[in-house]
Amino acid sequence: MSGVRKLALAGVALLVAVGLGACGERDQVTVYKQGKYQGKPDSQPWQNDPSASLYTSSKWGKGDKTGWEAALKSRNLSQNEYTRAE
Amino acid sequence: MARMKFLCDAERCIECNGCVTACKQENEVPWGVNRRRVVTINDGVVGAEKSISVACMHCSDAPCMAVCPVDCFYRTDEGVVLHDKDLCIGCGYCFYACPFGAPQFPQAGAFGLRGKMDKCTFCAGGPEKDLSKEEFAKYGSNRLAQGKLPACAEMCSTKALLGGDGDVIADIYRQRVLKRGKGSEVWGWGTAYGKPDQQKAAPAGAKS
Question: What pTM does this model have?
Fold first, then answer.
C-alpha cells in the first residue's frame, strides 16, 4: 500500500470518527433525588465562626448547633413586645 | 428547630415600607428587583384599608422547586428555600409557579433580557462560603449565619412582620390576638390561634 493511500485512509477514518462523534446523545432530563439538588452544596449556618463577621452580636462556638439555636431563639422571642413591656 | 417562617399581622402593618427598605439596604438588592413589597387593599377607604408585607414564604412544598427545569432549588434544614444562581438559567418558570410573585428577574441586557432569578433568602445567603464576598454578591446578607433573623422582621417598627421559627412566632401572634381580643378575621383561626373555645370576647373599643 502506497504512502498516499495510507494517508487518505487515515484521513477518512478520522473524518468518520469526528463525524459520528457529533451523533452522540447526552441525557437532557434532570434527575431528581429526594433531598438532593443539582447545584452546589451549602454549609450549615452554625458551622461558621461567628467572629468571622464584623457585626455578629450573638456568640456560639464554631459548629455548636445548640448554641446557635439558642442565639436565634433569644432574638426570636424578643419580637414579642408583651414580654418586654410587662 | 422547626421551620423558618414569616407572618405578617395585617392589623398592625401601617404600610411604612420599612421592611422593603431594610431588605434593599441589607442585601444591596439592585434597581428593579424587590425581594419584599407591601401590598395594600382598599387603599384610602377608612376602616377597610389593610396592608400586608409579602416576600418568599419559604413554602414547605414549594411550587418553584417543583417546576424548575434545572433543579437549582434546595431547602435548608431550617426550611428556607434557596437556589443556586450558578445553575439558574433565568427561564421564569418559578415566577409563574409562585403564588406570591416572589421570584424577581433583574434586567441583564439592553433588550429586557432576563437575568438570573433573585428572591428573598430569609437572609440566609446561598450555596457559597458563609459570610464570603461571593455569597454577598450573589445572594445578599447571611444573617442566619450571624445568629440573627431577617432584617425586614427585625426592623419592623410595629412588629407586624414576624420572622423566625414558625412555632415561636405563632405563639407570639396567638398571645397578641388573645390580648387585643380581635384579629382572628385576619388569618385562619385554627391556623394561628388554636381552638375557638379559647377565644375571649372582644372588649369594647379594642385596638390593635
Answer: 0.81
